Amino acid sequence: MNLGRLNHVGVATPSIEQSVATYRALLGADAIGEPFDLPAQGVRVCFVDAPNTQVELIEPLDDKSPIAGFIAKNPAGGQHHLCFEVPDIGEAVAELKAKGATILGEPRIGAHGTPIVFVHPRDFGGVLVELMEMPRSDH
Ligand code: CO
User: What is the whole-number distance in angstroms between the Cα of residue 5 and the centre of ligand 1?
Assistant: First the structure.
């Protein structure tokens, strides 16, 4: 496996609307997508584009959301995960499992419409890592 591009930094927030306003006001962000719900993952998502990567703002859809606990511990929100691209999610999962890493759940379709999976933070010094299959240009 080779480390791929940093696709995005995941940032949990209690309010996407407020976070978007902050990125606009303080950093001059102007390429900001429309927020959308990912009910299967219990989150609302909005991407802020930087020239070399994206910030993925994630807000819990309800208190059963996987990030509801994070927001409870960090009421103002905070950095949640890093997402790296991999060529093939199945191969990445097999290789990481063989190396003893803990994969959280099964691969599923992520916010960019390609398969994603999360690796346990204890395997990365406390950082939650998302792996995302690169979109294929031949589709
Ligand atoms: Co993400």
Answer: 13
